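tool_call: predict_structure(chain=1)
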Amino acid sequence: MKLQYFSHRHADKLLAACGLLQELDTALSALPVPIYPGKSEAKQRSEKQVIVQTVLNTLVELQLVDLGWLAQPQVMATAGAGKTRYYADFYKAEHAESLEPFVGRQASQIQALVEVQFANSARADSDLKKFSIGFSQGRCDVGVLVVPM
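tool_result:
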């Protein structure tokens, strides 16, 4: 799978500082893309839609869980914050040595939430809301949204 990155507010540098950027890059770029040539014709869609999205989602999940990512974590961390109906796709926290240029601390733990959205681009607003809730609950320092291009 070919990857392209867009970073907001030094997210790429934060992920790189704790090794999560390289981990995500290696995991996602190594994935095979499951193609079913007759899929579009059967559903009378555009011929461009030949990727089997459910299989691709499963491959992403297997790859990231194998690397220690927590699947389907609740997007909250504050004790007593109550239940939320929002769940991210993946979560992982890693230690980073020097984050002083970005967050003003020498050593810190970076928490990343990952949302994978291959099916419905209209759900991207919900994914961004999950990142916002995670940030306000102390559960997210960086949000990663994986979408097809």
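agent: The helical segments are 11-17, 20-29, 39-43, 53-66, 100-103, 124-136. Proceeding to next step.
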